[in-house]
Amino acid sequence: MQKMRFGGLGAFTLGELLTTIAIIGVLAALLLTALTRGVGLAKRTDCVNNLRQLGIAMQMYVADKHVYPLVAIDFPDHYIGWENALARAELDGPAHNNKPPLYPRPGIWHCPAATLPQGWDNYADYGYNSYGMSPSSGSNSLGVGGQHIWAIWSGPANPAPPISPSEVVSPSQMMEIGDGFKGGSAVIQDGWYVLWRTYGVTETNYVGYVGSTKRAYSRHQSKANVVFCDGHVESPTMKSLFVDTTDAALSRWNRDHQPHRELLQP
Question: Looking at the DSSP assignment, which residues form a beta bridge with residue 80?
Answer without folding.
Answer: 73
